[in-house]
Design goal:
Strand order of the largest sheet: 3-5-4
Structural class: mainly alpha
Number of strands: 5
Radius of gyration: 19 Å
Distance between the termini: 49 Å
Order of helices and strands: EEHHHHEEEHHH
Number of helices: 7
Largest sheet: 3 strands, antiparallel
Helix content: 55-70%
């Protein structure tokens, strides 16, 4: 069992560094750097990918804040509350949707759009694997009581830490993507639909292991978290792209 620790900030002048924000920033930088190299390898324009990543990051931050206020605070969206990001409060689902919206708005500047989308999908698990380490450092996704080697000792009670579980899951997904990438001569993997399916397969079961019935519990609609409902949609969309391979999903 992992001993309990809490590392919310790193002392630094003139102001402390928030560990969650630091890990998210490192995740974005790592995914962008990987995507830059992958774009060059595929004959795309790396500068366009970096530009898209910057806008996606901005859209992700806005979406994450709006998602948190809407899903976990019930608003208000039209107030100064939206700008108080230093007080904490971000929704990863909102961040994903915000990032996707930003990329879609600039799709005419990315040719071929789905080619860049494939690169982004390949790089995304790396970014989330690193970013979720920040969630683990502050334990903002406590799980149910369960004694395993990867559980955290919360005041004598072993609990799963979903931040750690998500970090490890997306690291594994990224490793699988790297293996598929090296075998492109044998089979041409489609990373966007694979990411949609992988994201859903990871989030749907793990969210059942989140803590229930406490102030730390996530908002639920019936028995499902917002991420689980989105997971169903993501998996359906990913399966559609893999099976149907519509004509508009052109990578070149």
């Amino acid at each position: 069992m992992i001993p309990y620790f809490y590392l919310s900030e790193i002392p630094f002048w003139p102001m402390p560094i928030q560990t969650w924000g630091l890990m998210v920033a490192l995740g974005i930088l790592a995914a962008t750097a990987f995507g830059y190299r992958e774009s060059r390898r595929r004959g795309l324009e790396p500068a366009k990918f970096v530009d898209a990543a910057a806008w996606a990051s901005l859209g992700g931050i806005v979406g994450a804040r709006l998602g948190y206020l809407l899903l976990y605070r019930g608003g208000p969206l039209l107030s100064w509350e939206i700008f108080k990001i230093w007080e904490g409060g971000m929704s990863m689902l909102g961040g994903v949707l915000g990032g996707l919206a930003a990329i879609w708005l600039m799709r005419k500047r990315l040719k071929p759009f789905w080619g860049y989308a494939e690169v982004a999908a390949l790089a995304y698990p790396l970014g989330e694997a690193i970013g979720r380490v920040g969630c683990f450092m502050i334990h903002d996704h406590q799980g149910i009581e369960l004694n395993t080697p990867l559980s955290v000792n919360f005041s004598g009670t072993p609990r799963l830490d979903l931040g750690l579980a998500l970090s490890m899951s997306f690291a594994l997904l990224f490793a699988v993507f790297l293996v598929l990438r090296r075998r492109e001569r044998q089979v041409r993997p489609l990373f966007l639909p694979s990411l949609l399916i992988g994201w859903g397969v990871i989030r749907f079961p793990l969210d059942f292991l989140r803590v229930w019935g406490t102030t730390e519990a996530d908002f639920r609609l019936w028995l499902f978290t917002p991420a689980q409902l989105a997971a169903v949609v993501f998996v359906a969309a990913g399966v559609y792209l893999l099976v149907k391979r519509p004509a508009w999903y052109r990578l070149d």
